[in-house]
Amino acid sequence: MTKHYKEKALLATENKIDSIKRDADFFKRNLNRFIVFGTLASFVAPNYGKDKPLYAELNVSYYDLVVFFVIVFASICFISYIIWKVQDRTRMRKLLKRKKELEEEIKGYE
User: Fold this and answer.
1) Cβ atoms 101, 29 nearer than 8 A
2) What is the pLDDT of residues 35-87, one digit of tens each?
3) End-to-end alpha-carbon separation of the chain, Å?
4) Which of 11, 16, 2 is nearest to 88 (CA)?
5) In angstroms, rounded to a whole number, what is the distance separating the alpha carbons of residues 6 and 107?
6) CA-to-CA dists, residue 72 to 8, 64, 104, angstroms
7) Cα dihedral angle (64, 67, 72, 73), rounded to 10 degrees?
8) Helix, strand, or coil here: 48?
9) E strand or H helix that includes residue 35
10) Is 85 helix (H, G, I), strand (E, B) or coil?
């Protein structure tokens, strides 16, 4: 590769790094929306079922089913948050390594 293409690759890598920094912590930035959606979904979900409400089909109280849905939703959100965090960290490490390699190769041309 020529120096020109390496500089373009370096610029693209830096833009990807900026994009990851900007888009990181999506869950934290939208925490209010997740809480509102989870609360509404937890109170509405037990009312759905084929012939009768879900809580009547399962023979449990409405509030027990609401608590169950809150726990499931919170668990899914927590697991998603951890997965997104690990993925962002992994991508960032790879891009920083690539950036360092490109900078060294560009210095080699000078």
Assistant:
1) no
2) 999 998 888 888 887 778 888 888 888 899 999 999 999 999 999 999 999 99
3) 14
4) 16
5) 11
6) 46, 12, 48
7) 140
8) coil
9) helix 31-44
10) helix
How many H-runs (helices) and E-runs (strands) does the chain carry?
5, 0
- For residue 21, the one-letter residue type is K
**pLDDT tens digits for range 22-45:** 888 888 888 899 899 999 888 888
Q: Look-up: residue for tokens 């490109």?
A: 102
Question: Taking Cα atoms as reference points, which of 85, 100, 81 lies closest to residue 9?
Answer: 100
6, 103 Cβ separation under 8 angstroms: no
Of 80, 100, 69, the residue nearest 25 (C-alpha): 80
Cα dihedral sign, 99-105-108-110: negative
Q: Tokens 């020529």 map to which residue? A: 2
Q: What is the CA radius of gyration of the chain?
A: 24
Flag whether the pTM goes above 0.70.
yes
Residue 81 CB contacts under 8 Å (≥ 6 apart), including other chains: 27
